[in-house]
Write a structure and sequence with these properties.
Elements (H helix, E strand, L loop, with lengths): L1 H26 L8 H16 L2 E2 L5 E2 L3 H10 L2 H20 L4 H24 L11 H29 L3 H33 L2 H40 L7 H16 L3 H12 L13 H10 L5 H10 L9 H5 L16 H16 L10 H9 L8 H13 L9
Antiparallel strand pairs: 1-2
Helix pairs in contact: 1-5, 1-6, 2-4, 3-7, 4-5, 5-6, 6-7, 7-8, 9-10, 9-14, 9-16, 10-14, 14-15, 15-16
């Protein structure tokens, strides 16, 4: 399975690089040395921008050079823009790594070339002209340019992530667009501002340009920092749950990973996907303080079979006290509900149904007793007996697809 993923990733990289070389062959002959100083200064701006990139929590980096590239497309002919991109990215790569390689430098460079080429021709197709910022129709073409550059750049980026992780592409793209949309809007606005300033102020605009760019970068990095604090706090709570019972070590994290993967497979994205991950991490928070050897624990086990799990009710009440987790409380409350308990399975949140499947699968495959520990195939076979009663068939199918992609479920499961 891993070799197939590596082959697909390498093939995508090679095709992208070949397309970029073709683009260069068609475009670079039109490059003129008349604006060499301007090209050099904008290439430096690209270099500095890429040295200020931001690490994203879901993987990959956000390069703020999009602002410089958009300004270049608005101001200069396509060959000049491509030379600016190539020079800036190669110099920044040398500064950061002191070497060039296909995966970290050449492939991203090829993506930037193709993105700039396609978005430039979209800009020209809707009436835009390099070096001429016209009112009304010019504004419309600029907006279309910014949207096209964002969609193409993000589309290529998410395609590689989907190939590497074996996850559906469209939900990942929509989720990333919602998450990164505001910062791309900010970068695009700064790029347009640079183009307007350059027409009136010349080279001085490049110096002033970095002030709003640094503010935008600082704001987004602070936002990511707050989200990371939320995540770390939730993980600390999950660790506290597991600390009182060593046999449950890693259960919350594994259930969260399964739940997020299942949700992506189903097509869930954005805020709902994030909440499912949080609810899965904290689905057993109500177990804190329950003595494994007490009568309360025996009553807890008995009530769990009917869906009215006291620890789930307590956990939901705890989560409801946290503003950014309120919408996840119902998932925790109902994650033990059998789907045949109510007239309509939809009365149980999809997140709760996902966590129910993920939690049971993890318990069956992670038992400390070898005689009770099941393989993925055995666990799925056992859970399918309760499909349609305890477990949602749609969620079960999603889990089976994920296990197959991971190479853990080679046998056929009908």
């Amino acid at each position: 399975m891993q070799s197939r993923i590596r082959f697909k990733v390498a093939l995508l990289q090679i095709i992208t690089i070949l397309l970029a070389l073709t683009t260069l062959a068609l475009s670079l002959p039109g490059f003129s040395v008349a604006h060499l100083l301007t090209v050099f200064l904008f290439a430096i701006a690209v270099t500095v921008s890429r040295l200020l990139d931001i690490q994203l929590p879901q993987g990959g980096k956000l390069h703020i050079d999009a602002a410089v590239i958009i300004a270049s497309i608005l101001l200069f002919p396509l060959p000049d823009t491509l030379v600016i991109i190539i020079s800036g990215i190669l110099v920044s790569a040398v500064i950061k790594q002191f070497k060039l390689n296909m995966g970290r430098t050449i492939y991203p460079l090829a993506l930037k070339i193709i993105t700039a080429y396609l978005s430039t021709y979209v800009f020209y197709a809707v009436g835009g002209k390099a070096g001429k910022l016209e009112p009304f129709y010019g504004i419309v073409s600029i907006l279309i340019l910014c949207a096209a550059h964002f969609a193409i750049d993000l589309g290529f980026d998410q395609l590689m992530i989907a190939f590497r992780r074996g996850t559906p592409y469209i939900p990942a793209f929509i989720s990333a667009a919602r998450f990164l949309g505001p910062i791309y809007l900010s970068l695009s606005s700064i790029g347009v501002l640079l183009a307007i300033m350059y027409k009136g102020m010349g080279y001085w605009s490049l110096i002033i340009f970095f002030l709003p760019l640094l503010v935008a970068r600082l704001s987004f990095k602070s936002f990511l920092g707050i989200r990371n604090v939320y995540r770390k706090t939730i993980e600390a709570l999950a660790n506290a749950i597991e600390a009182q019972n060593p046999n449950r070590h890693g259960h919350g994290r594994r259930v969260a990973n399964y739940s997020v993967d299942i949700a992506k497979e189903i097509g869930i994205h954005g805020r709902e996907l994030e909440l499912i991950g949080y609810a899965a991490l904290l689905h057993d928070i109500g177990m804190l303080g329950v003595d494994e050897d007490s009568l309360d624990h025996l009553l807890e086990q008995a009530s769990t079979q009917s869906g009215e799990a006291p620890h789930a009710l307590i956990g939901a009440e705890v989560i409801e006290q946290v503003d950014f987790l309120k919408d996840a409380a119902d998932m925790v409350r109902k994650h033990h509900y059998p789907i045949d308990r109510l007239k309509s399975p939809d009365e149980i949140p999809i997140g709760a149904r996902i966590i129910n499947v993920a939690s049971n699968f993890d318990k069956l495959t992670q038992s400390d007793l070898l005689e009770e520990k099941l393989t993925a195939y055995q666990a799925i076979s056992r859970m399918k007996k309760d499909q349609g009663m305890k477990f949602d068939p749609k969620v079960m199918r999603a889990l089976i697809n994920i296990l197959r992609k991971q190479g853990r479920l080679m046998e056929y499961v009908s």
